[in-house]
Design a protein that fits this description.
Helix content is 22%, strand content 38%. Bound molecules: zinc ion.
């Protein structure tokens, strides 16, 4: 079987307030903030922190309909998704769909770092929201 998911790229953490979360993760826990982006069309503000090979993506929802806002309303702040790198996202999505995995995104779209991303439905992945990001 060709390789599908590769390195763990980042862990997405849903927060209520990005500035508060940055204070905790940067000033108290000592991680380095490397980039920040606001994506109004996706309903998120994101900050990336460096930890070595794997990043931390802090996410604050914008508006009631944001998936991040809904996650925080339902579960409280916490780990919302994990993201793996893939070599060819279109091929991997097709193969996973053929294997019966439910896709949230049928087609990849640009993510917070400008690379192509797609999400797999947690119902197909033991309750974990998985993001794929093309290398
Ligand atoms: Zn992510």
């Amino acid at each position: 079987m060709p390789q599908r998911l590769e390195e763990l790229h980042h862990i997405g953490i849903a927060v209520k307030d990005l500035e508060d979360a940055k204070r905790v993760y940067c000033e108290i826990l000592g991680l380095e903030l490397t980039s920040e982006i606001t994506l109004p069309e996706r309903g998120v503000k994101a900050a990336f922190l460096e930890t070595g090979n794997t990043k931390i993506e802090l996410l604050e929802g914008i508006g009631e309909e944001s998936p991040v806002t809904r996650f925080v309303d339902r579960h409280g702040p916490g780990i919302q998704h994990i993201c793996f790198e893939v070599e060819d996202i279109v091929r991997v999505l097709r193969e996973l769909a053929d294997s019966g995995v439910r896709l949230i995104d049928q087609e990849p779209r640009p993510g917070a770092e400008g690379k192509l991303v797609a999400f797999l439905h947690p119902k197909s992945t033991t309750g974990v929201l998985i993001e794929l990001q093309e290398k």
